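Hey, can you fold this?
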Amino acid sequence: LGASGLQCGRVTRVAQGKFEVNLSRRLLVYERIRVQPDSGDEGPVFTVTKMDVNGKSAFRVEKGQFATIYFDKPVTRNSIVYKVGISNPDLSPRIAKLAPARAAVDLAVAADSKGLTVTFSGAMLPAWHYPLELGEAIQHPLVPETLETEFASTRSERLVAGRITATVTGRLFLPATSLKDARRAFWEWLEAQPGLDTLKPGKQGLARFKALMTSLTFPEPARITISVLAPTGAASPVHANFTVKTLAEAGHGTWEVILPDFCSELDLPAVREKIRVLISQGVKRFRVTSVYGFTLLGKAQGIAIITSFPLPACNSLAVRELLNCGATRVQAWIELDSVALNAMLARARSVVELYTFGRPAILTTRAVPAMFGIMTDGRGLKFEVEKAEKGLTRIYSLQAFQIPAPADVSTFMDCSRAKPGAVSTSKFNYEQDWK
């Protein structure tokens, strides 16, 4: 019983209310230890709440160091110390002393000859006006910094000043006492407002999110297109507005180019140069599969940038962010179910493209697998493990992915590894109910 646990050291010295241990492994405050006397008798078990190293308080003491552990029961020299567990500290007394959360209020304070006005950013509160007759200052006119500093001060237990911006119209004289009176009157007025509940921590963030979603807009519908990644050295096997080529295969006369999804630092110069050459040859459409593509294409004029697998976009906010990066169209993530996909289309249909057919790599890695070729998982599904370029290994489902193509949405088909109608297909997660 006495030797249970993980040995972590031996007692080298004892003193009143403490003892020293030469540690053979790391020890932390709040770990539980057993101090086993060399007599074999059962020793005390307790939680370490305080330790010193060389007279300095320590939360963690490493192997090979001497830790002074504070304990009010007798401990004998040469006792073996074992770790036997860990205790979670009781933080309730410290939590009880914390100040209550206060809502931060963003203010815009304006001063003119008729007084002070405070308006609010993102809050459903009326403007506050404090009438004053302010004359022209001969010396020391009111400056915005003074307003910002003064209105940042509050004794409220529920509110705190957030971002404050101030403007002053004219050379105004405002006595310090009058400014303090105005500031006190403002915070008292604000405390009494019925709309104060909207300023509670958490609700402000929710309100900003709702405002963002409400204001989210997308361009007017553009031309509906079908882009097809063709097999190497071949034409598109199906109708396409644009035949897509890989960067390695693209050249003069290419309509659309897809950039590599894996591009190390060593590959960047060659990719950048190939893009430059293609643009000079008149290529106008590029597909980015990773965020690095936006930087490489960012300064090019008159081109269209379409995001493409495996760059994920699962909702309208992601679509908006990618448009802000420079995309003209955004491909929806291939694993979305139909309900989530339709919800995304309802908000951003004009700029979304659907991946409707292909055998995408479901895993890309530089790890070397135990085998290449066809493998079967525990469900009986078959996959192909393939050695690819740049030391990569890619895993593909033997079944091609295929979902219905809406008539009013641009689509992308990857026919580089499969031809529609020639292989068995699966809808992956399209019909999955995730509720």
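Oh, and this one too while you're at it.
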Amino acid sequence: MPTPDELRADLAAARADFADAVRAAAAVWERRPDSAEGEAAWSPRQAAEHCVAADVAYASAVCIACGYPGLDRLQASYATAADALLGLEQASAIADGRLKYVTEKDLEMRNQRGFTVAAMIRANADHFRDHARQIRAVVDSA
């Protein structure tokens, strides 16, 4: 199993990948893909608003699984890619302010749905990467 530091580093790398995708999408910020449905039909803006809020939600779920109070839900609107990058920076600081305390022992703690803390941190990183790919697909189709 990865250590807490390895999981945090992977999450940071996933956020950086996502930020690169957001930067690349500035010129197509509101563009939606053709012939897609559900989340796959989201514009880069919608994907960014969703992912930034989810970063805090994942950290909140980790807190709760470890027996601590969760974080306030984050909802924001980003009119530009630059706004989203600032929001990502702020959300990451909030999330990392809690995730920095995760220990080896905490990694096996489970939430009400049975997911371990390690799995939740990994899922957050995967979530960023999935939406980075989605955003890049919109950029590539422009």
